[in-house]
Amino acid sequence: MTVAEIVKVLDAKVISGEDLLDRDVHSACGSDLMSDVLAFVKDQSVLVTGLTNAQAVRTAEMMDIVCIVLVRGKTADSGMIDLARDRSVVVLQTEYSMFTACGLLYESGLRGGGGRANAKKFKAAL
């Protein structure tokens, strides 16, 4: 799936990275906790989150996340937008809830990046 396809699926507005919509995305993660993202995300993912500050972009950069989708109509602060532009991270905004956005992406063929191995690790940690 490409970022442009995500824009269509989520009826999203492009906040930054208009020239990067042809990038491929292989998996998705929905979380407001960046520690969970660091633990479970694979490369070339989309991050679906309600976190609207630079920390989401810093996490995306560390994990090679190509796109951040802000849910519930939340708007990015100026620091987030500036950093996303500097780091070539696409930021999108959708009115959908996190649950619905993740469901729509899943329905469109995008899967989670953690896979069964990470789910077993997570259960073992509990």
Q: Give the biggest beta sheet.
A: 5 strands, mixed
For the record, the count of structural domains works out to: 1
Taking the alpha carbons of the first and last residues, their distance comes to 33 Å
| Number of β-strand runs | 5
Largest sheet, spatial ordering of strands? 1-5-4-3-2
CATH topology: Udp-n-acetylmuramoylalanyl-d-glutamate--2,6- Diaminopimelate Ligase, Chain: A, domain 1
Give Rg in angstroms.
Answer: 13 Å
CATH superfamily: HprK N-terminal domain-like
Q: Percentage of helical residues?
A: 40-55%
Q: Strand percentage, roughly?
A: 15-25%
- Class by alpha and beta content: alpha/beta
Succession of helices and strands? HEEHEHEHEHH
List unreliable stretches of 5+ residues: none
Number of separate helices:
6
Present the secondary structure layout:
Layout: H1 3-9, E1 13-16, E2 27-30, H2 34-40, E3 45-49, H3 54-63, E4 67-70, H4 78-87, E5 90-93, H5 98-107, H6 115-125
Parallel strand pairs: 2-3, 3-4, 4-5
Antiparallel strand pairs: 1-5
Helix pairs in contact: 3-4
